[in-house]
Amino acid sequence: MAILQGMHLTPIGDGNVLLEPTEALDPGEPDAYLVPLTGALQQMRARRLLYDLKNVPVIDNLYYAWLENLASMCRISGIDMVLVNMRPATAYALALTMKDNPPFSCALDVNRARNLP
Predict the structure, then answer these.
(1) Do residues 59 and 27 lie in contact, with contact meaning Cβ atoms separated by under 8 Å?
(2) What is the DSSP string of 38-52?
(3) Residue 51 in contact with residue 20, Cβ under 8 Å?
């Protein structure tokens, strides 16, 4: 497991890496996270980033912008990004925040995300 400021990264096999954000994550400062996160994911040879939202109560415009930036970084690095473990209220807030199709996939849980094509 790697610990970066505001997040825990855990390789879970087959090129999947689980990202668990902590309360220290500041979505308003994506530049502080994207370079070290990219380096860690490349070092782990990640093919898919599973972003765990179980501790994220709501997604507002600022948090959605962070997710878009992260998804762009993943796409450039050849990594698929999947949001997992969303609470119903978080999913509803995400749906209200999105203007277009999201740049990431969503799955109910980690096991289902690992089985995506």
Answers:
(1) no
(2) HHHHHHTT-SEEEEE
(3) no
CB 53 within 8 A of CB 81: no
Torsion angle of C-alpha atoms 22, 28, 29, 33, degrees rounded to 10: 40
Work out the widest C-alpha separation in the chain, in whole angstroms.
35
Q: Which two tokens stand for residue 100?
A: 């277009």
Residue 1 scores a pLDDT above 80: no
DSSP 14: T
Q: What are the tens digits of pLDDT across the range 38-97?
A: 999 999 999 999 999 999 998 999 999 999 999 999 999 999 999 999 999 999 999 999
Residue with tokens 């415009």: 61
Structure tokens at 22: 């902590």
Query: Are 114 and 12 contacting, i.e. CB atoms less than 8 angstroms apart?
Result: yes
Instruction: Tell me which H or E stretch contains 7.
Output: strand 7-13
